[in-house]
Amino acid sequence: MRFCRLLNPLLKDTLAPLFTADPPKSAAEVLAAAQAKKKDGDMADGNALCGAWAALISGLKDKSADELKKELLRRAKTYAKVLRAFATSGKVELALLRYMQRLCLQAEKHLEPHFALMLHVLYDVDVLSEDAILHWYHKGSDPTGRDVFLPQTEALVKWLEEESEEEEESD
């Protein structure tokens, strides 16, 4: 199943102003808006997750690398609940990873050097699982951009694999 291929821009357009509002909207308010828009648009979880991610990263274009990292971490921690609501399976997580690849290569090229950081942040806030990241790395990445993103994420994957081995040994 291919999620995120025909992303409904209405979700991104609805959520982007909520993620960047001043004063900030709560995660509960953003989630309620996202769920309502998902229901109205009869969207699959994969499309909703990709739309929420696209909205979350919107407005990061004109920031320095340090500002971008800081703001990405802040938004991901604040709104992880919104993303987790739609990250309902490994298939959906894989769809997000592939969508992120395409987005970084096309519309959001300024984020391309921060791809590994984005994966690590989404892992840390429990949006992406270890299994999804490892599957994406070993056999699920989009061929477009594979040569860019696999080397960039090699250290993260090695760390995840070592963590997994340590957990197995302690069991």
Automatic annotation (TrEMBL):
Residues 1-170 form the W2 domain. SUPFAM superfamilies: ARM repeat. This is Armadillo-type protein. It comes from Dunaliella salina. The lineage of its organism: Eukaryota, Viridiplantae, Chlorophyta, core chlorophytes, Chlorophyceae.
